[in-house]
Design a protein that fits this description.
681 residues; alpha/beta; pyruvate-formate lyase- activating enzyme; Transcription Regulator spoIIAA; 3 domains; 6-stranded mixed beta sheet; 18% strand; globular
Length: 681
């Protein structure tokens, strides 16, 4: 009766039979601020794709995110029809273990493998499964459940990050996640995303109006105005982003966005537009200054970074180490170049030939992959898993660690750099006189004031004199532009220092391994509940709609469910009804009754079309009609003539006072009683 969509089980970031300690389930602490100790940002992000899929199918679904193994076993014992396991290559062993447990505890359940891990060649032979879902998951599931594949996408209303902490200080306030689309057309040969979605961007929302409406909904639910945009190159669709900006201005919504974008897309969109849109965090792929990627060609990177900083945009720059052109000499030039850009955040990743990328196919063909490195270590944060002419696996491990350490020791903690970016942006944008830009400037002032206390809290733990001097310079700028700290800010500083002391002690005594909470979210709680929700039909001239109301009853004599139809069946809602009935028949494999007595009218020959589509299930369908139905003889005679195998039952309507309430097996009231049929008599 249900689909379970699950991430792989915890613990994460530990050395055990299923994973490695370097593969941490925290974006920042795993691959960005990993060597910054107490200054490392500690955020958890949910498995967003699971929620998007569950939201956009008609089939009842449950999302189980970050379960323990015991919690997963408890869930699968409920007997789901399907279980979908989402995993990446390093979590191969976890996905295989989960498949084995499903076969043990729920052998009739169909297993679906999904996520980037499905690109592993012959994965269906390596993990016991019934289906492999590659590419875009919403449409794949809709096709599996015989639903309308191209129906509009509904955006889930979920937070972007949770359990947010810095130096042990809880970061309050929620932010929302926006998923405008998936995939990327840039065709970088090392990129999983572009290959997984066949070198194209698949948009879920084509207009700025759609995105604006989602922001408004999340603002109402979470009280948030900050959003992270999960789109590989958000500014590439300039028309959509500009429409979003226009609507924000029209409705005076000073939303703030964190985005991914290529340098070429930023330049085309324009720095001032980036500022006006409210982009406060931007993830940009530098990749390598020694190899000029198409997306970065002809762009003055130092100037671009400076312009973004001047507009208060905190940049995360990513660089790929151990590319073919890297040697023991020039690889440090790569690291030094990243430092000259002065990004607030820096990600150093090892070149990783992951399954079915062009890079993987090339290295596999040349015999360059290391067969002694298990999938658990294919995560880019420990050692390379291919033979490099210049570097051993051990050298790659040490160089990566040192690259992060150099970034931290020379530029300081990322949060401190971000404090500088906010105050720089505030000071620089004071020059603008435009009303909207002035409002944006005031927001930068607010962000600066919010982080004023952080500078003092960080100072006792800074790694060296250079970063300590940097902190003093930033504090002086804050004092000059914002004035002295208020009483409240001084109190926050004291409170934060207490959190930091405790966090520092915890790191020394207990280490830094933390696990995310487990989340269970249900969508369309039962098949019967789903089956009986109303269906909208054709729009009418007065701006209303035809509606087909559905009500479930239980037949006393046969014990099967009867679906009572009320209202108007037309050329639109009959198709929706067909999918629901088909879903029920496939899942329950039981007879279903269809009561047409209380229908107002049947348009477009829709009832005949419905029965024709359900042809192979006619032996499982009973049509109930009343002796008092107007024109019933001709109508029913035509149905009987055209559809052999369907049972037609005429009944007498009992007075309401004589009906007996019939509870369902789970105790719910199924309605105001059953109808007495001639067969019952």
């Amino acid at each position: 009766m249900k689909l379970l969509l699950t991430s792989v089980f915890k613990p994460y970031g530990v050395d055990d039979q299923y994973g490695r300690k370097e593969n941490i389930m925290e974006l920042y602490h795993n691959q960005i601020t990993r060597e910054q100790g107490i200054f490392s940002l500690r955020y958890n992000h949910r498995s967003f794709g699971l929620y998007l899929m569950a939201e956009n199918i008609e089939y009842p679904a449950v999302v189980l995110d970050f379960p323990t193994l015991d919690r997963f076993i408890k869930e699968i014992k409920k007997g789901y029809d399907y279980v979908g396991i989402s995993f990446i290559t390093p979590n191969f062993l976890k996905a295989r273990k989960m498949s084995e447990l499903i076969r043990k505890y729920s052998p009739s359940t169909k297993i679906i493998l999904g996520g980037h891990g499905t690109q592993i060649p012959d994965i269906e032979k390596m993990i016991d499964c019934d289906y492999v879902a590659r590419g875009e998951g919403v449409r794949w599931l809709r096709k599996l459940f015989d639903e309308k594949v191209d129906a509009p996408i509904k955006h889930p209303i979920i937070p972007s990050a949770e359990n947010k902490r810095f130096m042990g200080i809880p970061l309050l306030g929620k932010s929302g996640i926006l998923m405008p689309g998936v995939g990327c057309p840039n065709r970088c040969r090392f990129c999983c995303t572009t290959h997984n979605f066949r070198f194209e961007h698949i948009p879920f929302f084509q207009t700025g109006k759609e995105l604006f409406d989602i922001c408004v909904k999340m603002e109402k639910k979470f009280g948030c105005s900050d959003f992270f945009v999960m789109d590989e190159n958000f500014l590439k669709n300039k028309k959509r982003a500009m429409e979003l900006l226009d609507l924000m201005k029209k409705h005076d919504k000073l939303y703030y966005f964190g985005i991914f974008s290529s340098a070429e897309a930023i330049m085309d969109f324009g720095i001032e537009n980036v500022f006006e849109l409210g982009v406060g965090f931007l993830w940009l792929g530098v990749e390598s200054y020694l190899e000029n990627y198409q997306k970065n060609r002809g762009i003055d990177m130092p100037k671009l970074f400076s312009d973004l900083r001047n507009h208060g945009v905190s940049v995360l720059a990513s660089s790929i180490l151990f590319q073919e052109h890297h040697t023991k000499e020039n690889i440090w030039k790569e690291v030094d170049y990243m430092k000259t850009l002065r990004p607030d955040f820096a990600q150093f990743m090892q070149l990783g030939p992951l399954p079915k990328t062009a890079l993987y196919d090339e290295y596999m063909g040349k015999g360059k992959l290391c067969t002694d490195v298990p999938f658990e270590e294919w995560h880019g944060q420990h050692r390379i898993w291919f033979n490099h002419p210049e570097f051993t696996q051990k050298e790659s491990q040490h160089i990566l660690k040192e690259a992060f350490q150099r970034d931290f020791h020379e530029l300081g903690p990322s949060i401190m750099r971000m404090c500088e970016t906010y105050i720089t942006g505030y000071e620089y944008t004071l020059r603008y006189q435009d009303t909207w830009k002035r409002k944006r400037n005031e927001k930068l002032r607010e962000y600066s004031r919010d982080f004023y206390s952080a500078i003092d809290i960080m100072q006792p733990y800074l790694p060296n004199r250079k970063t300590a001097m940097f902190a003093m310079d930033i504090e002086e700028r804050y004092r000059r532009l914002l004035g002295e700290k208020t009483v409240a800010q001084r109190a926050l500083t004291k409170l934060g220092q207490g959190f930091a002391f405790k966090e520092n002690l915890k790191l020394k005594l207990l280490g830094d391994v933390r696990q995310p909470s487990t989340y269970v979210t249900s969508y369309r709680k039962s098949l019967l509940q789903f089956l009986s929700s109303p269906l909208k039909g054709r729009s009418l001239p007065d701006m209303s709609f035809n509606y087909l109301e559905l009500k479930l009853r239980k037949n006393l004599s046969t014990e099967h469910m009867c679906l009572e139809l009320r209202g108007i069946m037309d050329g639109i809602n009959w198709v929706k009804l067909y999918r629901r009935i088909l879903n029920y028949l496939k899942t329950e494999k039981k007879t279903i009754g269809i009561d047409i007595t209380k229908m107002i009218s049947v348009e477009d020959d829709s009832l005949h079309k419905l029965m024709k589509k359900l042809k192979e299930y006619h032996s499982k369908i009973m049509v109930y009609y009343s002796e008092k139905m107007e024109g019933k003889d001709e109508f029913i005679a035509r149905l009987k003539e055209n559809f052999e195998g369907i049972s037609f039952v005429e009944y007498i309507v009992m007075p309401v006072s004589e009906r007996v309430p019939v509870p369902a097996s789970d105790g719910r009231d199924m309605g105001d009683g059953c109808l007495l049929t001639k067969r019952d008599l």
